[in-house]
Records
---
Amino acid sequence: MPNREKPSMVKGLKQLLKYIATRTAAYLATIFTGVTLTYIVVKAMPVDAVENILFNIISVTAVYDPASIELLRRNLYEILGMGGSPVESYLIFIRRVFTFDFGPSIIAYPTPASEIVFNRLPWTVGLLLTSTLTVWVTGNLLGVIAGYFRDRRFAKVLESVAITLYPIPYYIMALILIFLFAYLLRIFPLGGGISIIPEKLNLEVILNILWHSILPAASLILPGALGWSFLSSRTLTMQTLAEDYTRYAEARGLPRSHILKRYILRNILLPQTTVLALSLGGIFGGALLTEIVFTYPGVGQIAYRAIFSGDVYTLMAVLFLSIIGTATGTYLLDLLYPLIDPRVRYR
Amino acid sequence: MGTVTESLRRMGKLLITLYMGNLKFRIGFTILSILVILGFAVSPFSPTNTRSWYIVPRDRPPSYEYPLGTSSMGRDILWELCASIRNSLTIAFVTAMIASHIGLFLGFIAGIRGGVIDRILMFITDTFIIIPGLPLLMVVTTVLKRYLTIPTLGMLISIVSWPWPSRQVRSMVLSLRERTFIHTAKLSGMGTFRVIVQELMPYVLGWHLINFTNTILFSIGTESGLAILGLSILDDNTLGVMIYWALNWGYALFRGIWWWLAAPVATLVLVFISFYLVSIGMTEFMHPIARR
Amino acid sequence: MIVEGLKAGYKLQTIGSSEEVGVYVDAVSGVSFTLYRNEVFGIAGESGCGKSTLIKAVYGYYEPSLVLRGGSARIYGAKGEEFDTTRMDRGLLEKRVWWKHMSYIPQSSMNVLNPTMRIRDHFAEILRIHVGMKKGEAYQEARKYLEEVGLPVDALSAFPHQLSGGMRQRVVIALAILLEPSLILADEPSSALDVINQKVALTLLREKQEALKNTLVIVSHDMGVHGVLTHRMAIMYAGKIVEIGRTADIFWKPLHPYTKALIESLPRLGDKSKRVGLSGSPPDLKKPPDGCRFHPRCPYAMLICSRAEPSLREIKEGHYTACWLYSEAVGEPR
Ligand SMILES: Nc1ncnc2c1ncn2[C@@H]1O[C@H](COP(=O)(O)OP(=O)(O)OP(=O)(O)O)[C@@H](O)[C@H]1O
Ligand SMILES: [Mg+2]
């Protein structure tokens, strides 16, 4: 008789709920601790934001009266929630986190920090979403093919290329690409997100944006698609090929294309979705260095400027997004993976 | 201590076997040795101080006199490169010494003790994993800018480098713990510590070596990233700092002084590839399925 | 099926340790036998004597390290079509022979089902690919078939890991019989199971064989299985067949000293006398001994046994052995 585990519905449900509860608790706790730790570090930055703004205001308005400057200074501390004791400002900060209102920015005072970040978000997400998905799809396809035909010449060539590209950080790749395509061949622009002032979104603007994002995207895609994504799916493919069930499928006379699709792809795509979920979670963190190297107008640029001008709130808004993104990626994966992969259960 | 010498001896033997048996390891190790020689044996003979400005004619392309050319800062790029290799490798070595051993220690404790200790340690590890490392380091280096030296920079980078080795060692220990020989050792009355050292160490040591190598890779990458952003030790020589000056001060590409940028970038690429080859050579040796 | 002088073995290539480079394991060394329609044929022998290798070589399934060194293995389809599996390439075997005319149950069947595919798809894919059925039709057929072989129908929608070991084994057996091939090669189809499941699995195999009147080869080191199930059997020792005959003859009138030792070591009802097993251990197939491979352990060894190899000869009707003891030319040399 089938020896299938059939725990009573109630027991199964209880177990599931318990699993979800512990995972959710851990998820919230890591976010909280992560945000707090980051906050403490960020607060220690030596650049005094208030003095920064004060300096700007004074130079624009030409107010030199010491009393009004002092008043202004006190007001600014108040507005920025930086006046009180460290504990007080921490509590203010936590309250703001819940509403995602991080207070006014300093790099573009008085625009709210969250608004600045949200304005830049489409740039970063657009660039990273496209390149992450491209990396995942092409890397996996190439990896499976190279793993399946591992003795062919092209597979070996691909492997050597991957081994060369994989360890190179994307920003070094960015420099190499700039050197080759912008300096030597002069095909692509040296940087920037767009070179015309957009009045409204039309085809020309979109094409111009795309034109500017080709090199940044390539710097992310090359080490990825021909690097980790390729190498990991190649290794997984070779492992799956050595499994008893794949070899027995061959012995049953099933055609190669069928085995590739139903036995290999199916079994390796499951672990590979893990990687995809994690890298999608990392999207909000941006590719800071790529953005700097290409002067690409994403959230990474904002974070960079925020650090140099002591803009605690804008920086925290960026970091918060990134922490949430990564943590949520892992969390959702833990919850959903047992649904996708029949081999895994909730523990 | 006997176990330490024993471990070192084992590692030495492992290296020799690897060098003989694995092509990738051999290539990586050879390139790496050349870089180490350039950095540590050749660079002390530098005829000029690689940190001073305007000591040789500026902007000279590669020639017989200056094999790699000179920069707009008036430095001989060859000698600056050698010093940079030394410093970059030193930073990375410090990071790897600290981070991979913290990882080894915490991963071991978590894996062996399990239960509450495991959960607490993994919670801390996970927290560090979700914090975006580069921005955090950027902030930390801004805060501690005055104290940045070659070794302290290596220490700072290890703040964000230990979680992955720790996770790796833990899962390694967990899977080893299930194997029968550990149970036998426990049953035969060996203390927990003896079990760890005698039964698990030989297996974990190989992976530790891989973690060590990967942490070196990570550290060099991070340092050059920080440097490109202007957050490294700008008055010393590292590969990243060379890139920083070439890009941000010299506008090397706009002005056509490509050799200034090409030298550190090409060297970095060599460093990355050689360490990576060493790392996968070891992995393939340890995990034969990847070999075929 | 007719197997003649089949030679196959493993080429070992180990990176690093210098001693094993280029070593050849002589696992099947000139094996010949003939199988008839409507019979159950057993292969017995100690662990490592080459039983599984023989099955793989006959089936034509060569993993990277397994190489064919000579001989032929001809199988005959239900309509008398002849295929020599040693002369056909992989693609041809896949298309023409495997599963349609000949199927194979591997030794460790626990992990041979795709963990991400439901049981019904394992059946359906064979029906679709080898028979050309449509998906819906194949599912219906799979359900009908499972009922017929006595497997619970709700196993169809299960994933492999949700089934017990015994169930999985029966699924694998059912897969092998699905297309009613004229030859079924079963390598230890029951050895990983407990006694009850063993019986269920073997009964399934035998009932199907009786219904189909085809040829079933059962490899087992368990002589009990052979006694109950097989009509004829072969005894293997160190890569060679040392004796072939009707199972009853092998059990009651064994010829070869190795077979005798094997039979004598079996526990018998009411017999309490202590069994003397064979001394020594089987030879290393990387460097097999000259002459008869059994001679270092043989209590009757003669001079010639270490010099020349005895060939398989018919001693009584349908009963063959390869041993110098039964040779007329046993003029003790010198
Ligand atoms: N993949 C392989 N590579 C190298 N040698 C192998 C391989 N598989 C088997 N051998 C060797 O070939 C010989 C025959 O092995 P085989 O598996 O055919 O034995 P068997 O009779 O089926 O044993 P068992 O009863 O244990 O299944 C043994 O000496 C074995 O060590
Ligand atoms: Mg076998």
---
Amino acid sequence: MLEYFKTDWSAMTTSDWVGLIITVAVFFGMLITFWRALRPSKRKELEEEKYKILDDD
Amino acid sequence: MDTTVKPQYNDGVVKYLAVGAITFLVLGTLMGTFAAAQLAWPALNFDIAEITFARLRVMHTNTVIFAFGGMTLMATAFYTVQRTNGVKLWSNGMAWVTAILFTIGLLLVVVTISLGMTTGKEYHEQEWPLAIAIALVWTLYTLNFVMTIASRNKETHPNVYVSNWFFLGMMIAITYLYVVNGLAIPVSLFRSYSLFGGVQDAMIQWWWGHNAVGFFLTAGFLGIMYYFVPKQAQRPIYSYRLSVIHFWALMFGYVWLGAHHLQYTALPDWTGSLGAVISLAMIIPSWGGALNGMLTLSGAWDRLRTDYILRFLIISLAFYAMATFEGPVMAAKTVNALSHYTDWTVGHVHSGALGWVAMVSIGALYHMVMKLWNTEMYSMKLINFHFWLATIGTVFYIVAMWVSGIMQGLMWRAYDEYGTLAYTFAESVAAMHPYYVMRTVGGLLFFSGAVVMLYNVIMTIRTANARQEAGVAANA
Ligand code: HEM
């Protein structure tokens, strides 16, 4: 298992680093989004949005 | 009584785009049905180069995806952005220029493809002058959309409704994906070579290719779903918070999936594995979104019995859920080893394309026609008839492709006791005949439904004034 995850950091190219950083940033971006959308204190404010389109025309 | 003054919207361009979309649905499904018939009876290409399967297939994909799908996206985006933000379009003139140039551009795309001019890149066959023109027109569309949102009254509309997020996400993603994949060196007016080579070219191509599905055919149509399902059902979407999560998960996730088109190729193995893993992860937001749409009806399911437009919208979500389950399964390497290069893929594409994209569009287009011309449809019965033609046609198509695809895959990998292939390729082609006939029948049903829709919409428009006057007279 350790062998499988072994990484030769010195062999990382610029593209590898860019890819790695984007992947990790996206992961945290997702976590933050889930937290922001699902926190109970925001529930009322967010759910009110959905009624607004019902009489727009 | 409601005394608030509703703004006058710029609906002329939306009307044009809506009728254009329905017309292209008829033309695109006609080409698809003809292509399907050629696979069943090859003599039907009549030895005419312009309509041989190889060209007809690409004319079909460009007509349904870009002409029908693109015009539907433009019509619905221009329609909804005005209503959800309470303003007219930022520039009505620019919207008209966008719509007209887009129509001309796509007609030229179809003609040049039939003449054999192609880059050979799937969903990006347009040669460079047309590709640049399309990218510019697309930018006008995006700019107008963004500026319309920006010009809203922030006191009355402090927040931007979620359908706009999906539309905007789609527009931005498609712009950069299309431009990067299109980078090429022109050698003549209608010939160019991709800037990328080998494995990089394949990777960039499927990064675009899968996102043509993920953003153009999914995110954009989810924008449609998040507006038109609540409006047609006259109930708010089940959960706004779920829609927020659905949006961000799609935006973050979809761009990683392309590599699942390249399993067992020269690409590093981990790329395909990553593509497969993220594909599986996408089931969660996709099903969350599908349920969000369907549960909007909870407590009012009986409406499906009488509201035929709502039926189109809700069945589209069932197909969306089905296709977004099937896709990740096919991305897994073991399944992909069987399904890739077979008709199973074509069946999967059409359960999304017919069941999801076309059905949700049809529902939204019927809804808009009634609102835009301020009238009931000419015939509700014909909408019901259309619903059944489309549904049965889709089921015929995908069942035929499941059977033929899995059969092909199994025939190609079957060995006899000496370790040699049990079937020749030609034998597998011959075995497909009954399923290709069945698909043609399914296509014919779906196409007939599109013709019924066009007729119903034309009659609605032609008789709209008379019916409005009759309504006023009856009320007087
Ligand atoms: C009457 C309805 C339709 C029929 C009969 C039909 C038929 C076909 C046929 C015969 C092919 C070629 C398959 C092959 O190469 O073996 C095809 C490909 C394709 N069609 Fe359709 N089609 C229909 C509607 C649509 C619609 C509405 C869309 C999109 C909104 C669509 C999207 C596509 C795509 C993306 C492909 C390429 C699939 C791939 O590369 O695997 N089709 N269609």
---
Amino acid sequence: MRVVIDGDLCQGQGRCFSIAPSVFGFDELGNGVVLAAGELGEGALELARLAQANCPEHAVRVVE
Amino acid sequence: MTLEKTPVTDFATDFDHTDPAWVADPYPIWEELRQRCPVAHTERYGGAWFPATHEGVSRIAKDTKNFTSRTVIMNDGRPDELALPSPIGVAPPITSDPPFHQIARKLILPAFSPGAINPLEPQVRALCRTLLDRLAESDVVEASWEYARLIPPSVIRQMLGFPEEDTEVFIDIVHTVTESVDLPMDERIAAFEPIEEYFTRQIEDHQVHPRDDLTTFLLNAEIDGQKLAVEHVFGTMILILVAGIDTTWSAIGSSLWHLAQNPSDLERLVHEPDLMTVALEEFLRFYAPVTMARLVKHDMDYLGVAMKEDDWILLGFPAANRDPAAFPDADRFIIDRAENRHVAFGLGIHRCAGSNLARLELRVALEEFVARYPRFTLADPDQVTWSQGQIRGPRRLPIRVG
Ligand code: HEM
Ligand code: SF4
């Protein structure tokens, strides 16, 4: 499982990187970026799912 | 002078967000509307709609084809003398439509990104402590007027590089803009004069003496190799003041109002400081302070109602946050709510540009208050007053700390 941020949907308000700073970061405009590229470990996966459940723009997606 | 208004008897067909019942406690009204309409209407303000559901609010917030942000504060007039034509608008980017909106927004985002805002934490903390030191003498403290109110303007004044002694002038300016929805247009224009004069003076001073602050940043900013028009710089500054002060003041005040009446939540925050990250979001969901407005671009059927060109939409993010269809136990404050897609900062392209700053101020203001007063209660519920208009928060909040 990996996590992606849909750049068209993200409005950069940082729920993801405040919940899971080990998985997400931010760029110069404050938009979310994925730090943990590739397959997620168990802990990271749980955090990524939590971020998904908290992103108001539905921009965070955990995918196969 | 405020115009006399007829009291509302039916919010579904004749709503008014400045009606005393709505100002005192809007939540039961919204719940009733969700069950009855769910899009309420009024002939007031020249015609307006209020969708009370999360679905309605998100659809409109994300739909810039059918709605314009030309003005976002509902009033008796329509944008005319005070406004630049769409898509630029008077206070970019909040009153701008695409495609210009994105240009104006990208311009200011770096100044409010986490990278720029996080380093302000020590100065925000020092400010809160100074304010608390001033309160320390008595058993009852004024937590809104003498604490929450004073935090945001100091921070923004510093960011803009305006003189320290002008903090009170700032607060007057913000009041004029956000709480004058009831004034006739000519009085609003008159009220704006001193503001324009003050800002022009500050901008001129920065043109002569550039320094490392947001004003200089805006004066130097370029779009397609062109410096910004002075009206753009002025509009953006007004926006930052309007958007950043009453809003954050209200969020801090409502959160303290909640804690004063819910000792178990207060105790958890005192003993589990790590809870703050999620608690903050629940404060924002439950007491979302900001309602916005849109204008309908053309006649159309939308959300099952017949909207007319230039009808207002009152865009109730706070109502969306209480919709049981979007949040389980929507009417319960759950301090450790783990899943919380609240929309207190809006949705879509206009989503709050200042949210990193707002969260920083709210978190630090609460952390410091709770650290200073681990136990407090409402001194006198009858003395608590609430703001009127699109920004909701307590304006007087006497709290017993002794
Ligand atoms: C708790 C405090 C705050 C809340 C609840 C809040 C809420 C909002 C909301 C709901 C919007 C969307 C407007 C719309 O859809 O028309 C917005 C936009 C905006 N806010 Fe905030 N805000 C807060 C604090 C701040 C602060 C501290 C600043 C900056 C100093 C700020 C700057 C802005 C700006 C510039 C926009 C316009 C963004 C755009 O149109 O692209 N806000 N805010
Ligand atoms: S929470 Fe969603 S909208 Fe916010 S930065 Fe992360 S991905 Fe973007």
